[in-house]
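Q: Got a minute? One more chain.
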Amino acid sequence: MILAGKTFVGRRNNNEDSFCVSNTPTLSFTAVSDGMGGHAAGETASRICIETLSSILLQSNDPVSAGTLQSAFQQANASVLKEASENESLSGMGATLVCAVLFPDEFLAANVGDSRLYLYHDGVIRQVSHDHSYVEELVRRNLITSAEAKTHPRRNIITRAIGVESKLKVDLFQCEWEKDDILLLCSDGLTGVMDDSDIASFLSAKNDLDSICSDLIQQAYDLGSSDNITVVLAKNAEDEL
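A: Always. Here it is, folded:
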């Protein structure tokens, strides 16, 4: 697998996004978390999510299964809740979390919140994850369009997050992918201003994943993104290095 990831504070004073790319001989996975709750709280929540998830996946003695991924999300939720309960300044913090565990012929994925996972295959991009947000619910009910969702005054409200309740519902996915397919994980600093077709055009333009990450972040910033911007890419190919 070839992995790359970058995050950018953008027009914010601090970066509440966290991400990881892990590519070992036995396990490859990527994840993105977007914190909420203000300066220290948002940063802390997303960091805990990524650290907890990574620790559980890397310590697993058996091949990572959907159950393992589910457990990792539940533990991340418990860890954020515990930290918030022990530190008054972190009360109310939470985070989104999206993760993909990579195998040669398929990937396992999970998400909570509105950080997204896309699959780019044969020139076509498809959103794999489901946004857990107020505006996405309106879109599903055909009350507003996807374009209207990008400017809706309540577009930042998410309906499911890590660290909000002790019982967490996690969406799990198991999908096939082929050689040279690309997975993209990102925070809403990217998707809040870029359409899927625009994102796909960047994925088709270059082979270097680091450059694509940088170009997508720059484009989102140039389009006026007011949030932190994080982009992680995984290509189903052998690392030429």
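A: Helices lie at 39-59, 66-86, 134-140, 146-149, 188-191, 196-205, 209-222.
Q: Perfect, thanks.
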